[in-house]
Design brief:
Helix content: over 70%
Structural class: mainly alpha
Oligomer: single chain
CATH architecture of the largest domain: Orthogonal Bundle
Distance between the termini: 57 Å
Strand content: under 5%
Mean pLDDT: 80
Number of strands: 0
Largest sheet: none
Length: about 170
């Protein structure tokens, strides 16, 4: 009976935040199908572990944590694949849409260590408060502030831009 209530809380959370969790997954894998797989696996994992939800107020941060961890697991399992020359040519064929928007930002985020990237994504792209980010990541609020500060400092640093901004 109690798990049915928790399951209802979770389903409500999934329904209300489906676009956000998809965006989080996509920000890690940059691929629609993989992001959908991550969301689906996150929902499955969440439903299997619904009894671990403490209260209704913690459902959102708990589910976001599942999505972030599932995204990181996916990345570890599927290291970046190298694009073949044929795939590069397909990007340049006539009529192919351009994909330049925010490429520097995307590249910079991709190159950040995951602990920094996650904080940046949750804080600025998902517009979460520092306390919510701390709940999702299960870390102290001061840890989130420190990681956020370090991530922004790293992004601004010329060493990072020189090291990761040019190939």
């Amino acid at each position: 009976m109690f798990n049915k209530r928790k399951e209802k809380w979770l389903i409500t959370c999934i329904t209300e935040h489906k676009e956000n969790v998809y965006r989080i997954a996509f920000s890690y894998v940059k691929n629609k199908e993989d992001a959908l797989d991550i969301v689906q696996e996150s929902i499955y994992k969440s439903l299997c572990n619904v009894e671990t939800i403490r209260n209704q107020e913690s459902v959102k941060s708990w589910f976001y944590r599942v999505v972030v961890n599932t995204s990181l697991d996916f990345i570890r399992k599927h290291k970046k694949e190298i694009i073949t020359e044929d795939e590069k040519l397909e990007l340049h064929i006539e009529g192919a849409p351009d994909h330049y928007e925010n490429m520097d930002l995307v590249k910079t985020l991709d190159e950040l260590p995951s602990k920094y990237r996650t904080v940046i994504i949750l804080r600025f792209f998902e517009d979460m408060k520092i306390e919510e980010v701390a709940d999702v990541l299960e870390v102290n609020v001061n840890t989130v502030k420190t990681r956020l500060y370090q991530a922004l400092k790293l992004i601004r640093s010329s060493d990072f831009i020189q090291h990761y901004g040019e190939e």
